[in-house]
């Protein structure tokens, strides 16, 4: 593995960080409190090309390789403190845009990708249901063939971007062929009769990223809405999850780096008992541990990017990185609050928000427990991996 970045990668990352610092942090405490998505900032990200990072240039994307994408996303996370906006961007990019690049027909790519890159069309991913989360393939949303169309019925929950989405990637199962082979994926436009979205679900963190329930009530979609062939839903889903797990925490590297820098600065300047608190070993060791976690997290994600760029399988590496980086993110968030004492617990210091935002990372895109199950299965320890 080559850890050196090209001058172009470095310059791109620096530009993105400057842009994020300048444009994406307005009224964040207020927006977090109210749970408001920054639509204007989304458009600014689109103008910079960030909503089309992995998309081929012919469809309006930047065609960035995986390593460039990883570096740029860390820079974005370092400059942008709005983790909710970044989470919506990830949900759009990895669970909506990327599967269209990978599995879309030429017509679907032409229809969706340019508008998705331009920020005119927001994507979401609707797999989880009230009764099936980790056991994703226990879904009950049904598909029934009717002539040249399909009829979808069921309910999805925890759908990121749903309240603002224009297109949802919906997974449904053929009741006559229950199980993996019966699952298909559909690109369903928001205005399709029979599709309704609930009001936003309020949550602990990532509050500026809207989440909702999606209800499909005799929702009639044309066969042209199928993403991949009928019955290929499992392949679409597993590929998408692996890709999402590989990149969704790249911006967390930036957040962890920002919080680490703040802790170093605070420990150097905050005095108690007549000396900077950083002179107390209990504080300095905590900060060194934050640094160690950040370095290890970055190495794991860069290895994933390197494997992705070489077209090599990275299923186990993606699961391991997802567990490690999300748990490091939460632990370092706790440490940052602890180092700042009572101030760390205040809204004004903006560390408690990073911690609340970090906790979700152990749940979305497959929980830590499920990633460990997947890795155990890949290592030949268990006969069958359970979950996503
Ligand atoms: C912020 C956020 C955004 C999300 N965005 C989306 C989205 O856009 N689209 C979407 O479809 N879903 C989304 N989800 C849903 C997410 O994928 C699920 O929450 C997750 O897969 C877990 O499912 P569950 O919540 O039903 O928990 P459950 O599956 O009920 O699990 C509950 C607990 O049991 C544990 N558990 C379950 N099975 C096992 C097992 N076999 N071995 C060990 N432990 C087990 C879990 O790890 C967890 O700790 C999002 C979730 C969050 C928090």
Report on this model:
The protein has 13 helices and nine strands. The protein has 388 residues and is α+β, with helices and mostly antiparallel strands. The protein has three domains: 7-122, Orthogonal Bundle (Butyryl-Coa Dehydrogenase, subunit A, domain 1), CATH 1.10.540.10; 124-231, Beta Barrel (Butyryl-CoA Dehydrogenase, subunit A, domain 2); 237-378, Butyryl-CoA Dehydrogenase, subunit A, domain 3, CATH 1.20.140. The model has no long low-confidence stretch (mean pLDDT 96). The structure holds flavin-adenine dinucleotide. Flavin-adenine dinucleotide binds at residues 91, 95, 124-128, 133-134, 158-160, 206, 360, 363-364, 366-367, 369-370, 373, 386-387.
Jot down its keywords.
Butyryl-Coa Dehydrogenase, subunit A, domain 1; 9 strands; alpha+beta; two-stranded antiparallel sheet; 388 residues; Butyryl-CoA Dehydrogenase, subunit A, domain 3
**Which CATH architecture of the largest domain?**
Up-down Bundle
Overall pLDDT: 96
Number of helix segments?
13
Helix content: 40-55%
Order of helices and strands: HHHHHHEEEEEEEHHEEHHHHH
Count of domain modules: 3
Q: Let me know the largest β-sheet.
A: 7 strands, mixed
Provide the CATH top-level class of the largest domain.
Mainly Alpha
Shape: globular
Q: What ligands can be seen in this structure? A: flavin-adenine dinucleotide
Q: How far apart are the termini?
A: 29 Å
- Which runs of at least 5 residues are low in confidence (pLDDT < 50)? none
Extended strand count? 9
Query: Using only CA atoms, what is the Rg?
Result: 21 Å
CATH topology of the largest domain: Butyryl-CoA Dehydrogenase, subunit A, domain 3
CATH superfamily of the largest domain: Butyryl-CoA Dehydrogenase, subunit A, domain 3
Structural class: alpha+beta
Strand content: 5-15%
């Amino acid at each position: 593995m080559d850890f050196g970045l090209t001058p172009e990668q470095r310059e791109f990352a620096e530009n993105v960080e400057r842009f994020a610092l300048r444009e994406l942090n307005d009224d964040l405490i207020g927006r977090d409190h109210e749970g408001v998505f920054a639509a204007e900032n989304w458009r600014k990200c689109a103008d910079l090309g960030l909503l089309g990072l992995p998309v081929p240039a012919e469809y309006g994307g930047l065609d960035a390789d995986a390593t460039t994408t990883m570096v740029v996303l860390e820079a974005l996370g370092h400059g942008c403190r709005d983790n909710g906006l970044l989470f919506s961007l990830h949900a759009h990019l990895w669970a909506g845009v990327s599967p269209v690049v990978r599995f879309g027909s030429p017509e679907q790519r032409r229809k969706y990708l340019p508008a998705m890159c331009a920020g005119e069309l927001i994507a979401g991913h609707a797999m989880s249901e009230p009764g099936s989360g980790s056991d994703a393939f226990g879904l009950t949303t049904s598909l029934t063939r009717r002539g040249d169309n399909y009829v979808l019925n069921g309910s999805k929950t925890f759908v990121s971007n749903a309240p603002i989405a224009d297109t949802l990637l919906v997974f449904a199962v053929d009741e006559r062929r229950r199980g993996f082979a019966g699952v298909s994926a559909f690109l369903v436009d928001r205005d399709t009769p029979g599709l309704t979205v609930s009001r936003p679900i309020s949550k602990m963190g990532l509050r500026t990223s809207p989440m909702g329930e999606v209800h499909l009530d005799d929702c009639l979609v044309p066969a042209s809405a199928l993403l991949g062939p009928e019955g290929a839903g499992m392949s679409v889903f597993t590929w998408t999850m692996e890709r999402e797990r590989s990149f969704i925490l790249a911006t967390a590297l930036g957040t962890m780096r920002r919080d680490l820098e703040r802790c170093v600065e605070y420990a150097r300047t905050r005095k108690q008992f007549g000396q900077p608190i950083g002179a107390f070993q209990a504080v300095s060791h905590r900060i060194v541990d934050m640094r160690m976690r950040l370095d290890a997290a970055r190495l794991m994600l860069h290895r994933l990017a390197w494997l992705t760029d070489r077209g090599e399988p990275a299923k186990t590496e993606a699961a391991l990185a997802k567990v490690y980086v999300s748990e490091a993110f939460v632990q370092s968030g706790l440490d940052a609050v602890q180092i700042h004492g009572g101030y760390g617990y205040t809204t004004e210091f903006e560390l408690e928000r990073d911690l609340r935002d970090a906790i979700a990372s152990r749940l979305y895109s497959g929980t830590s427990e499920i990633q460990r199950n997947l890795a155990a299965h890949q290592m030949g320890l268990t006969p069958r991996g359970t979950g996503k």
